[in-house]
Amino acid sequence: IKNQEYSQIYLLYGDEEYLRKQYRDKLKEALVDDGDTMNNHYYEGKDTKAEEIIDLAETMPFFAERRLILIEDSKLFKKGGDELGDYLAELPEATYFVFVEEEVDKRSKLYKAVTKCGNAVEFGTQTDETLMKWVGARIGKEGKNITQAAYQTFISKTGTDMENIEKELEKLICYTMDK
To answer: Which of 24, 122, 123, 164 is 20 to 30 A from 104, comparing alpha carbons?
Structure first.
């Protein structure tokens, strides 16, 4: 993203919802202009139909360089995505896909097509060391610091879900204000 070099297909998946959302939003921001509703399409849920997506992907972008199709929690990577998997090999140059899924079947035709033609990134539960650095950096941005013991107590109360940690950190930072 920093180098502005993009693959046409991304699959963001795994247990860590916070990271999936962060990268989904960064890719969306990078691939289409803010407010461009003509070339930015969003599908969500298991009722997502591959035929409808393929028809849309064949449409040229409207006064833009790219058309982005964002598909979230479709379950197409578990079943029903074979047709879309076949299609991805012959994707038009101006069409970009971002898939966001919690679970995928790595044996599926769609998963294999994405890994062959694009990028699949798994966001799993973060290690304690990674979480400690992330919490420390987040607190450091506010001009505060946290001891190892306080961090351990904080994590024991919040768990390792980054979305929950973010919410609880916000409360903690607001509570401590000038302290």
So the answer is: 164
**Strand pairing category for 9-13 and 119-122:** parallel
- The pLDDT tens digits of the residues spanning 50-90 come to 899 999 999 898 988 999 999 999 999 998 888 999 999 99
Helix 162-176 and helix 128-141: axis angle, to 10°?
A: 30
What's the 3-state SS for 80-134?
CCHHHHHHHHHCCCCEEEEEEECCCCCCCHHHHHHHHHCEEEECCCCCHHHHHHH
| Token couple for 126 | 């973060």
Backbone angles phi, psi at 67, to 5 degrees: -115, 125
* SS3 state of residue 76: coil
| Two structure tokens written together for 113 | 């097509």
Q: Which helix (H) or strand (E) holds 146?
A: none
SS3 9: strand
* Helix %, strand %, coil % of the chain (to 5): 45, 15, 40
Model confidence at 1: pLDDT above 80? no
